[in-house]
Write a structure and sequence with these properties.
- It is a single chain.
- This protein is an alpha/beta fold and 732 residues long.
- The protein is built from 14 helices and 29 strands.
- The strands form seven sheets. The chain has an eight-stranded parallel beta sheet. The protein has a six-stranded antiparallel beta sheet with strand order 22-23-24-29-26-27.
- 54% of the residues are buried.
- The model is unreliable at 1-106 and 197-202 (pLDDT under 50).
């Protein structure tokens, strides 16, 4: 039992008339909690305040309750000792009355929530302090208030120092911001701060130890990254070729494991601390048609690694399987693969812990010509003797066939209802992980396999890797869905399933907010506020702005592509329309996306080439060869690469960016300022201010002097100018 050295009573009274002050549900499909502010300034040093409202119809907005609800009745109390009960620099004092005397040692504070409404039949409170966060009923974890008589409802909870957000849930459905509390975030949630707003109880962990929360991930598609051995350049007969230096190709282009190993120093210098490699397993050796040959007549090789063609491996002796699983010969040998991993692990990485390595693991299907399929055709899903096709039959989300349909007729899908087939796949994944000493997997198309496969994998990994560095063998899934966060969340549970997923909803909102001329960066601030804890305790999502399945990010940033959810098709994948932009603005906008990702929780992803804004339409044009000669890239590409490098090193050197908590200080259409804090004296707080506008903007930053993390100089607080499409990063 934890001993309490201090118990302070904090009371906030919400005085409501019968109608109350109804808020919106704290999250819709993407977590927008209310329309973002489009004007007005909230300076960093704003404290409590308040306003009186009256009437039955009211709307609660940031910092006040306008047009409705009775007097707030909140007082700022005084407590002797070091706890003054003042607001944190970026939020509001929730209005507290502190009674008690602080002494040494760890402390908890008793928070009492009070709500007045004689007509209410039930009152609950939820927020980021309940488990799971934002639980919607007492059964799920919301705190139930008890009626004390008359119109008063109340409940108390003990909390550590920190910044907390909450809403009342009245009569089981009405989400109500606390109108008596002038402290509200930009998303409309009520806010209160205990102590200095920093939770120094250990949530940031050992700042000197490796932690996945600090990581910067880089995806290298091996065949398109670097050619280090021309002797293994073996094209596949019939595949549609092309010059992948400047355009699309469905053919092997020569990149290999030796080339990747040679470029590990480049990645370390860039600030990469986790390398995700495309699948290195033996792949299909013959040409394959497109998923929809009617719209795409090109022939493809398995250069990308997603058509595994394993032999009929017997895993009866899991440490010595027969025959031994094979590395794809066109990219190298088993020794070459081990050399890449050894080089990464021993690299001089920005965080000082060497570069971690993840493999892509493809578990949904195998090549129809593979030895495994030929030996065990009964392990694969059929319907009356035929494969059901995901695309032509629109089975992607079918409750039965969504996990048993084939992407194309030459890739038979596993039937994981067959326990023997499932056990083989788990044994295969464990073999590759142990044999090569990797640190994680990116799990391809995870929604197309049943959950039992995933829970079996996690159970096996926990047995085989009982004490991984950083506390987890990182599993990140791919669920291609820009809108359904609940679907993504259904696979996330670090103890039983995934640690996180690639955050498709984040990508959409970031693109819309930062790249579009009419975008509103406050939308991104609001989304991220509701997204931080959405996926549950211990979850660790991967944020991204570009990947191998959609057109290159630079074309969204340049405004060539207007829809932030545009994917790949034959029209944009085999096109000459996606040239390298020549103006600085597109690269600067893309740099802002990296600035957001590198200075916030979640593992930021760099898709190879995005650090230089590499051009390309849809798949396969988005998989051009990585340019290695500076003479082949323009000045704006070089500037972007320097910015990405600077940001990655800033993240490595300031652990609060990945491990701390964000407080939005100001947000309007063009400017978002926030403070990352909560790791104590070992990792000073950092203030970030981002300007998406094409003109200079200013923002008020209280306090200082600060260390400018971009230049290393000192910056005084006050009104600071932000350059067009630029940002500042200031350490307190």
């Amino acid at each position: 039992m934890r001993m309490l050295s201090r118990a302070l009573m904090i009371t906030v009274t919400a005085a409501l008339g019968a109608a109350g002050c109804e808020g919106v549900n704290p999250e819709d499909e993407l977590g927008y909690e209310r329309p973002p502010p489009t004007s007005g300034r909230i300076d960093v040093n704003v404290g409590g305040g308040g306003g009186n409202c009256s009437g039955s119809n009211c709307s609660c907005t940031s910092g006040s309750c306008t047009s409705g609800v009775a007097d707030g009745g909140v007082t700022d109390g005084f407590v002797s000792g070091s706890d003054s009960g003042t607001a944190d620099s970026g939020g509001f004092d929730a209005g507290t009355t502190d009674t008690g005397v602080a002494d040494s040692g760890p402390s908890l504070t008793e928070r009492t929530f009070e709500y007045r409404d004689s007509s209410a039949s039930s009152v609950w409170v939820t927020g980021n302090f309940v488990t799971p966060v934002w639980a919607e009923t007492p059964a799920e974890g919301a705190l139930e208030l008890t009626k004390q008589g008359g119109d008063l409802w109340s409940a108390s909870v003990m909390l550590e120092d920190g910044r907390y957000e909450y809403k009342f849930i009245v009569n089981g459905s009405a989400w109500v911001a606390d109108p008596a509390n002038p402290g509200q975030g930009p998303d409309g949630n009520s806010v209160f701060v205990i102590g200095d707003g920093n939770n120094n109880s250990g949530s940031c962990g050992d700042l000197e130890a490796f932690d996945w929360r600090d990581a910067v991930m880089y995806f290298a598609m091996i065949d398109r990254f670097a050619d280090g051995d021309s002797s293994n350049n073996q094209p596949v007969s019939g595949a549609s070729g092309g010059d992948a230096t400047n355009g699309p190709s469905g053919q092997y282009e020569g990149g290999d494991l030796k080339g990747l190993k040679n470029r590990i120093p480049y990645l370390a210098d860039l600030g990469v601390t986790a390398l995700w490699m495309s699948a290195p397993y033996e792949n299909r050796n013959s040409v394959g048609a497109a998923i929809d040959p009617g719209s795409d007549s090109h022939g493809y090789s398995g250069y990308h690694g997603y058509w595994p063609s394993p032999p009929a491996v017997d895993y009866s002796n899991p440490n010595n399987p027969s025959p031994a699983p094979q590395v794809e010969s066109r990219i190298g040998t088993s020794q070459d693969l081990k050399a890449v991993i050894d080089a990464a692990h021993s690299s001089a990485s920005a965080d000082g812990h060497g570069m971690k390595v993840l493999f892509d693991y493809v578990m949904n299907h195998v090549d129809i010509d593979s030895g495994l399929y030929q030996a065990h055709p009964d392990w694969f899903a059929r319907d009356n003797g035929r494969f059901r096709l995901c695309g032509p039959e629109n089975l992607w989300n079918d409750p039965t066939w969504g996990t048993k349909c084939a992407f194309t007729d030459y890739l038979p899908p596993f039937d994981y209802g067959n326990a023997t087939a499932r056990a083989w796949s788990i044994a295969d994944a464990i073999y590759w992980a142990k044999a090569y000493g990797i640190d994680g997997y990116r799990l391809d198309a995870i929604k197309h396999v049943p959950l039992v496969w995933l829970t079996d994998l996690r159970s096996a990994l926990k047995q085989q890797f009982p004490d991984p560095e950083g506390g987890r063998f990182y599993l990140v899934g791919e669920t291609f869905d820009y809108g359904n966060r609940d679907l993504l969340k259904s696979f996330v549970d670090p103890d039983r399933m995934l640690d996180g997923q690639f955050d498709f909803p984040f990508k959409r909102v970031a693109c819309e907010s930062l790249f579009r001329g009419d975008g509103n960066i406050a939308n991104l601030a609001n989304f991220m506020q509701g997204n931080d804890d959405f996926y549950g305790p211990g979850s660790l999502m991967t944020t991204w702005i570009g990947n191998h399945d959609i057109p290159r990010a630079i074309h969204f940033a340049s405004h060539q592509i207007g829809s932030c959810t545009e994917g790949s098709n034959a029209g944009n994948g085999w096109s000459s329309s996606y040239g390298q932009p020549g103006d600085a603005a597109a690269y600067e906008r893309l740099g802002l996306a990296f600035a957001v990702m590198m200075t916030n929780p979640g593992i930021p992803l760099i898709y190879y080439g995005d650090e230089v804004g590499l051009a390309g339409g849809g798949d396969p044009d988005n998989r051009r060869m990585m340019p290695w000669s500076d003479s082949s890239i323009n000045a704006h590409q070089k500037a972007l690469r320097a910015e990405v490098k600077r940001l990655a090193h800033i993240r490595a050197e300031n652990k609060v960016l990945g491990r701390g908590r964000r407080t939005t200080l100001y947000a309007d259409q063009n400017v978002w300022a926030y403070r990352m804090s909560g790791c104590g004296d070992g990792a000073s707080s950092v203030v970030i201010a981002i300007n998406k506008a094409d003109s200079s903007q200013s923002v008020e930053i209280a306090g200082g002097p600060f260390t400018d993390l971009k230049s290393g100089g000192q910056v005084a607080g006050g009104r600071l100018s932000l350059p067009p499409r630029g940002y500042i990063a200031l350490r307190e």
